[in-house]
Amino acid sequence: MDIELPDKLFFKIGEVAQIVGVPSHVLRYWESEFFALKPMKTRGQHRVYRRRDVELAMLIRRLVYQEGLTIAGARKRLRELGKERVSSPPGVEASRQVAVRAEFLAIRRELSDLLKEIDLIEADRSWDRRQPAIVTSAVPSTVPIYKKSEIS
Protein backbone atom coordinates (compact mmCIF):
# COMPACT_ATOMS: atom_id res chain seq x y z
CA MET A 1 0.00 0.00 0.00
CA ASP A 2 2.07 2.93 -1.27
CA ILE A 3 0.10 6.03 -0.45
CA GLU A 4 1.60 9.44 -1.08
CA LEU A 5 1.00 11.66 1.92
CA PRO A 6 -0.30 15.17 1.28
CA ASP A 7 2.32 17.89 1.58
CA LYS A 8 1.39 18.88 5.13
CA LEU A 9 3.19 18.91 8.44
CA PHE A 10 0.19 18.07 10.61
CA PHE A 11 -2.92 15.92 10.15
CA LYS A 12 -6.18 15.62 12.07
CA ILE A 13 -7.23 12.20 13.32
CA GLY A 14 -9.98 11.91 10.67
CA GLU A 15 -7.47 12.61 7.90
CA VAL A 16 -5.06 10.01 9.31
CA ALA A 17 -7.86 7.47 9.63
CA GLN A 18 -8.76 8.00 5.98
CA ILE A 19 -5.15 7.82 4.79
CA VAL A 20 -4.33 4.71 6.84
CA GLY A 21 -7.67 3.04 6.15
CA VAL A 22 -8.81 2.35 9.69
CA PRO A 23 -11.47 3.98 11.90
CA SER A 24 -10.27 6.72 14.24
CA HIS A 25 -11.04 4.60 17.33
CA VAL A 26 -8.45 2.09 16.08
CA LEU A 27 -5.84 4.86 15.91
CA ARG A 28 -6.68 5.87 19.48
CA TYR A 29 -6.31 2.23 20.56
CA TRP A 30 -2.96 1.93 18.77
CA GLU A 31 -1.76 5.01 20.68
CA SER A 32 -2.23 3.05 23.91
CA GLU A 33 -0.45 -0.03 22.53
CA PHE A 34 2.44 1.50 20.56
CA PHE A 35 4.38 4.05 22.58
CA ALA A 36 6.01 5.52 19.48
CA LEU A 37 2.61 6.59 18.15
CA LYS A 38 2.07 9.77 20.16
CA PRO A 39 0.29 12.61 18.38
CA MET A 40 0.49 16.11 19.76
CA LYS A 41 -2.62 17.65 21.26
CA THR A 42 -3.91 21.17 20.76
CA ARG A 43 -5.18 23.35 23.56
CA GLY A 44 -8.64 21.92 22.91
CA GLN A 45 -7.20 18.38 23.28
CA HIS A 46 -7.59 17.56 19.57
CA ARG A 47 -5.05 15.09 18.26
CA VAL A 48 -2.62 16.42 15.67
CA TYR A 49 -0.47 13.81 13.95
CA ARG A 50 2.91 14.59 12.43
CA ARG A 51 4.07 12.98 9.19
CA ARG A 52 6.17 10.41 11.07
CA ASP A 53 3.10 9.45 13.13
CA VAL A 54 1.11 8.88 9.94
CA GLU A 55 3.93 6.81 8.43
CA LEU A 56 4.16 4.75 11.62
CA ALA A 57 0.38 4.18 11.62
CA MET A 58 0.61 3.00 8.01
CA LEU A 59 3.39 0.58 9.01
CA ILE A 60 1.36 -0.72 11.97
CA ARG A 61 -1.64 -1.25 9.69
CA ARG A 62 0.51 -3.25 7.25
CA LEU A 63 1.91 -5.39 10.07
CA VAL A 64 -1.47 -6.09 11.67
CA TYR A 65 -3.82 -6.28 8.68
CA GLN A 66 -1.63 -7.49 5.81
CA GLU A 67 1.01 -9.59 7.59
CA GLY A 68 -1.51 -10.84 10.16
CA LEU A 69 0.57 -10.07 13.24
CA THR A 70 -1.00 -9.59 16.63
CA ILE A 71 -0.52 -6.29 18.45
CA ALA A 72 2.28 -7.90 20.48
CA GLY A 73 3.83 -9.28 17.30
CA ALA A 74 3.65 -5.90 15.60
CA ARG A 75 5.22 -4.28 18.67
CA LYS A 76 8.05 -6.83 18.51
CA ARG A 77 8.56 -6.23 14.77
CA LEU A 78 8.71 -2.45 15.35
CA ARG A 79 11.34 -3.08 18.02
CA GLU A 80 13.34 -5.13 15.49
CA LEU A 81 13.01 -2.34 12.92
CA GLY A 82 14.11 0.23 15.51
CA LYS A 83 10.85 2.19 15.29
CA GLU A 84 9.51 1.52 18.77
CA ARG A 85 11.01 4.62 20.36
CA VAL A 86 9.21 7.87 20.73
CA SER A 87 11.12 10.69 19.11
CA SER A 88 11.89 13.68 21.25
CA PRO A 89 8.72 15.56 22.11
CA PRO A 90 7.99 18.60 20.02
CA GLY A 91 9.18 21.89 21.38
CA VAL A 92 6.95 24.51 22.87
CA GLU A 93 7.18 26.49 19.62
CA ALA A 94 5.82 23.58 17.53
CA SER A 95 2.91 23.12 19.93
CA ARG A 96 2.19 26.85 19.80
CA GLN A 97 2.25 26.80 16.00
CA VAL A 98 -0.25 23.93 15.94
CA ALA A 99 -2.56 25.82 18.29
CA VAL A 100 -2.29 29.04 16.27
CA ARG A 101 -2.96 27.19 13.01
CA ALA A 102 -6.03 25.54 14.53
CA GLU A 103 -7.30 28.96 15.59
CA PHE A 104 -6.69 30.38 12.11
CA LEU A 105 -8.60 27.49 10.55
CA ALA A 106 -11.54 28.11 12.91
CA ILE A 107 -11.54 31.81 12.01
CA ARG A 108 -11.42 30.99 8.29
CA ARG A 109 -14.37 28.63 8.72
CA GLU A 110 -16.35 31.34 10.54
CA LEU A 111 -15.56 33.91 7.84
CA SER A 112 -16.58 31.47 5.12
CA ASP A 113 -19.91 30.87 6.90
CA LEU A 114 -20.49 34.63 7.17
CA LEU A 115 -19.78 35.10 3.47
CA LYS A 116 -22.27 32.37 2.61
CA GLU A 117 -24.88 34.16 4.71
CA ILE A 118 -24.18 37.38 2.82
CA ASP A 119 -24.68 35.49 -0.45
CA LEU A 120 -28.06 34.23 0.78
CA ILE A 121 -29.14 37.72 1.84
CA GLU A 122 -28.12 39.12 -1.54
CA ALA A 123 -29.95 36.32 -3.36
CA ASP A 124 -33.16 36.98 -1.35
CA ARG A 125 -33.32 40.67 -2.22
CA SER A 126 -36.33 40.50 -4.52
CA TRP A 127 -36.63 44.28 -4.98
CA ASP A 128 -33.30 44.42 -6.78
CA ARG A 129 -33.35 42.61 -10.16
CA ARG A 130 -29.61 42.64 -10.75
CA GLN A 131 -27.52 39.51 -10.25
CA PRO A 132 -26.45 38.91 -6.65
CA ALA A 133 -22.76 39.31 -5.93
CA ILE A 134 -21.25 35.97 -5.00
CA VAL A 135 -18.52 36.72 -2.50
CA THR A 136 -17.68 33.19 -1.35
CA SER A 137 -15.90 32.41 -4.60
CA ALA A 138 -13.31 35.06 -3.71
CA VAL A 139 -12.22 33.18 -0.57
CA PRO A 140 -9.42 30.68 -1.20
CA SER A 141 -9.87 27.26 0.38
CA THR A 142 -6.35 27.34 1.77
CA VAL A 143 -4.64 30.28 3.34
CA PRO A 144 -0.87 30.11 3.77
CA ILE A 145 0.43 30.94 7.21
CA TYR A 146 3.84 32.59 7.19
CA LYS A 147 6.47 32.92 9.87
CA LYS A 148 7.37 36.41 11.00
CA SER A 149 10.78 36.07 9.34
CA GLU A 150 9.16 35.36 5.94
CA ILE A 151 6.96 38.46 6.07
CA SER A 152 9.67 41.01 6.85
Structural features, described:
This protein has 152 residues and is mainly alpha-helical. The chain folds into 2 domains: 10-88, Multidrug-efflux Transporter Regulator, Chain: A, Domain 2, CATH 1.10.1660; 93-140. The chain is built from 6 helices and 3 strands, in the order E-H-H-E-E-H-H-H-H. A hairpin with a 5-residue loop joins strand 2 (40-41) and strand 3 (47-50). It starts with 9 loop residues before the first strand and ends with a helix. The model has no long low-confidence stretch (mean pLDDT 77).
Question: What are its keywords?
Answer:
single chain, Multidrug-efflux Transporter Regulator, Chain: A, Domain 2, three-stranded antiparallel β-sheet, 6 helices
Write a concise synopsis of the structure shown.
This protein has 152 residues and is mostly helical.
Using the 3D structure, state the CATH architecture of the largest domain.
Answer: Orthogonal Bundle
Helicity level: 40-55%
Q: How would you state the average pLDDT, rounded?
A: 77
CATH domain topology of the largest domain: Multidrug-efflux Transporter Regulator, Chain: A, Domain 2
Describe the sheet with the most strands.
3 strands, antiparallel
The coarse silhouette is elongated
Biggest sheet, spatial arrangement of strands: 1-3-2
Q: Structural class from helices and strands? A: mainly alpha
The helix count comes to 6
